[in-house]
Amino acid sequence: MMNTATQTPSAAQRFKALCARFPFLPALIILMLLFALNGFFNANTISARGITGLFSTYLALMFLAVGQSFVVFAGDIDLSAGNILSLVNVFIITMMNASAGDGATTLGIMALGVLVGAGCGLFNGLLIAALRLQPIVATFATSIFFTGIALYVLPVAGMPAPMIYWQTYFASFFGLPFVIYVVALLLVLIFLFSRSKVVLQLLAIGDDKQAAFQSGLPVTATRIKGYVLCGVFASFAAFCLTGDTASGDPLVGSAMTLSSVAAVVLGGSMLSGGFGTQLGSLFGALTIGLIGSLVYFVGTPASWQNFVQGLAILIALMVGILISRRS
Amino acid sequence: MSKLILTNVSKSYGPTRAFKNGDFALEAGEVHALMGTNGSGKSTLCKIIAGSVKPDTGTVTLDGKQVNINSPQDARALGIGIFYQELSLATNRSIAENILISQVPLQFGLFVNRAALRKRADQYIDLVRDVAGEGFHADAVVANLRSDQRQLVEILKALATEAGILIFDEPTSALDRVQVKRFFEILEKLKGEGRAMIMISHRMDEIFEISDRLTVICDGAIVATRKREETSPKDIVELMVGGRSTLADDDGPQLRTSSIKEDKPLLSVKGMRGAGFQNISFTLKGGEILGLGGLHGQGQSAVLRALFGAAPIHSGELYLKEEIYRAGHQRRAIRKGLAYVSGDRVRDGVIHGRPIQENTVPIHAFRQYLFLTSFGDLSPKLEGALAKLSTKFEALTSSIDSLSGGNQQKVVIARWLIDKPEVLFLDDPTKGIDLAAKADLFALIRELAEEGLGIILYSSEDAELLNNSDRILVFNGGSITRELAGDERTRFNLYDAAYEVAS
After folding, report:
1. Which pTM value belongs to this model?
2. Is residue A2 part of a domain?
3. Which of B237, B255, B327, B380 is least enclosed by beta carbons within 10 angstroms?
């Protein structure tokens, strides 16, 4: 119809096409920018050692954000994700301390930890998709509930993780740190899920629940699956956190819940559902991590760090919107 | 032998009986049209068959066996596919994903097989590719499509179910004539394969073109089923509206006699250009109804939206009552006495989930700078405006969503009538509303013109344009290609001008 199609695409148009194909592009640009800034203020941060440190600290948030994406895709939210993480953390710590502590038992306990995460997710999913409770309030309630269980399992923070566990986390294999393999595994999972039926269905449901139902999609079952996957990823996050902190803490995850939601949004996903990528969420999680370290390296006085960090996240969010608007 | 038989089916929503004692039979290899005013129960009947509404009583028999359809998934398993009037597309997904959303080809049962998805989607897309216009390919995101293209996706999605029974609820409302023609060719082919189709449309000419049998529903009850050869549009309309005064039918358009009183132009446009239109010049006089005609999406809506300030104007001069008028802000347009009613009620008109009262008052509140007011003061004004269109509603406090599409549109129009505007832009105002509401609407439009309003009417139904406008500007490719006035206002001339370049 219009004559625009006959013109050769301008740079802006090409960028737009690129953004449409890779919706996480703005998040990646912000991440690169932050990375460069970090390197500018402290050259150590862009060394292999610095990157490994960044990964080992923020791997838990990366997993949690990728897990949160499943429910956000469907237009839901999970405010208990961080509390599931805490519960799994104290669960595996107490189990490990009660057992022999060899490799096989540890793996067995981790498998049980995944079941705990999946069970929490299933509980959330049943409340929300089957009983039709509002996601925000329902998961707010279950977050308190899960914290209650975590406090019963381990009333005070501080029980140490077995040596074999955290030594593995900080070990190197074939010249590469263990966390790099975990990041690679996460990337593979993200790639596989990006092509999975369940993510496509979650996105379609997030777009318009009624339309998806009328199209014959199993809406309730799929939303429950989303919560279960979120719970499973929260347990993966718990494994990483346990490796990083090497101890059990029943309250460690609650502060991470909203960070995971923020990471999903910074990654370009819509909180109303229907649009987003998990790779973007991963970038979002790293963005939050890098903002934290940047604020520190710039030399912000301790009393102002929260203020500056909050401001920086707002700016990152705005830059992301500007980039995608421009396109 | 009948493929699908409904016996004594009924459905109530609370005290409202949406459908009662329905006996309906659908045969293999036929297109069966359902006719009825909006809110008569056509959509309810379709939804019962498609499984998204559960009937309270009655039985459904498919190929001689009694079946229970409890969900859309059940319906799909039984071979029933449906095209929904309120589109069921996921706007952020691609065309291919939407077409095959409920039957995505998989690898290892877990992963989407992209290549197969594309290939299968392309088979369906090929059916309409040459009439769909630019940007219609497997990977295109639905959000970027025009409304006619979205409707095509929805049609393809219904076809992709490969179901033996297909239900089409208003499948052609956004399509242009070439696209409709292609759609009908597809239906003819499916008929040949022995598939059965139910079709709902408010376009009488299309119904008579494609259907084999017609069933008329009135107030939730099936009134009659007729073979096409044995009936006429007039018959059907009479059955549908149950004796109410009808629209002038296609056989002999009752041309409007002009009510233009003064010669001074109310609104004049010179060389206006913007996104989707160029070189637009015309004048509108008080008391005149100016029609915009042509194929769908040739710039008619874009011009109206631009004049109202909802879309930018790149160049050109506008005069309102011989004074320079700068468009570009809806608020200024409203203050100056311009009014705009869109056919897309859902997007541009109705405030969902709010009472009728709140849906009627906003323009009045804005123009009168209302700050604090009382329900008691407002009610008579609102009721007066609503009564002009004989809007049917329970109470001003009931939710707008409790009304049928036609009545919702009446509420949207009524909000402009409390303080009389100078110029009224009607952007396909009758889209998807029933015949009775249309008749009320056009009676009002004529009355407003008598009172001296200038009215610009864009309608995708030619009969409405021919019957109601003093002059018709025919659009093609974003420009006005012909002006039809007086005796030139004939169906032939309108088609001729519309197809001049497009075909």
Report:
1. 0.72
2. no
3. B380
